[in-house]
Each structure stands twice: as C-alpha cells, then as structure tokens.
Amino acid sequence: MRVLDPPLTADAIVTLLHALTGADELSHDQLSDQSANDHHADIHSHSDHLGITANQHHVEAHAAADHSDQTATGAELEALTDGSETALHTHTPLQSAILEDNRNMASASGDVTYNGFGFQPRAIIIVAAVLNGVSSHVGIVDSALIDYGWHVLHSTPIVRSGAGIMAEEDVNKYQAGNVSAFTSDGFTVTWTKVSTPVGSINFRSLCLR
Which end of the chain is more exposed for a tag (fewer CB within 10 A), N or C? Predict the structure, then answer.
C-alpha cells in the first residue's frame, strides 16, 4: 500500500520496516530515496554522505582535531596556561617609579644601594647632572644589567659611555656608576672615582618592571 498524503518520513519508514522484518538491520542502499537531511539513528561515517555540505551538521561524534584550526602543541599550551592545567595566567601591568638621589663626587669608589621603589626593577633609565655644573648624562640599564650612556661635558660633542651614571667636574675628573644588581626594592650602583672631583651629582632614576 502506498500512502500519498501525508508522506512517510524516513524515521517512520524505518520503524514500519523494523516492525515488518523483525528489526533486521537496513542498509543505506535499501533506503536510497532518503535525502541528506533525512537523519536517522544508523551509525555512519562522513564518507557515507558525500553530498552533504560542511554546514549540514549531524549528530555523529567526532574529535576536535577533525576541525582544521583546533589543535595546539604542548609548548603552545604551556605558554598559554603558564604551566597550569586549569587556568590561564594573567600578565602583570607595567610598574614604574621615579626617585631622586645625590652622590658626593668626593666620595670613595664602592657600592651604594638605592631603595624605595616598591618593587624589583627589570630596567632603569637614569638622568644625571652635576649641580651648578656643566656635565650631564643619560643612561639606560637593561634586564641583564648592561649599562649604556650618553654624556656631555661643557660644549664638547655628546659621547657614548659604558656607564649608567656619569658626572664630570672637569676632563678626567669624574664619578662613573654602573648598576651591578637589582634588589627587591631598588638597585645597587658600583661607583668608580677618577682623580679628585668635587661637587654633587644629582640623578633621577626611572625604574621599570
């Protein structure tokens, strides 16, 4: 008997045939008139539906890796989670602080620690000058404690320096300082006195983390 109105759905046909055949399994070929969207409970693979487009989704279970942009390497996941298996890490905002200090140019060579920044810096920018003098200096220190500087004395051209801080009273009479350590609250400068300079170095340090 053929029912014309309403037509039987694929599920209804499967149910009817199961009842008539004692629930024998049916193949796709036996239901060749089913369209791609007439879904049923048969377990099947993607290749069984060659005419189905990417957007005609169905209930077949599959792995995330079946989708082209869902994979990640172990190293990428470690970087994303900071070694944690349960939570993404957060990035600490940039911290910065400026403090002003002075150095007596007549002081002997040695280490001096400058604290009060509130954190351990990772880089420093230093601007220095001899008070009421004619010497000025701009220095930078990176996270590896490498110092660079640019120095001016009188009206001479700017010269590069290997010191983070430097101040001259006159030619070959100066104090030079290199940042030798970062502390939990600031940094340590190793000062070198050359000849017999006098006066006071004023410097401001911008510490960054």
Answer: N
Q: Which strand ranges, in their side-by-side order, compose the sheet holding 186-194?
A: 110-115, 186-194, 173-182, 165-170
Residue identified by tokens 């014309």 is: 4
Phi, psi torsion values for 14, nearest 5 degrees: -60, -45
For the chain, what's the residue count?
A: 209
Q: Which of 66, 206, 68 is nearest to 128 (CA)?
A: 206
Give me 79's structure tokens: 């970087």
Count of other CB atoms within 10 angstroms of residue 90: 7
Q: Which pTM value belongs to this model?
A: 0.59
The H-or-E segment that residue 79 falls in is: helix 74-81
List of residues 6+ apart from 76 with CB closer than 8 A: none
The pLDDT of residue 79 is 73
pLDDT digits (tens, 9 = 90+) for 119-178: 999 999 999 999 888 899 999 999 999 999 999 988 788 999 999 999 999 888 999 999
- Tens-place pLDDT, residues 116-131: 999 999 999 999 999 8
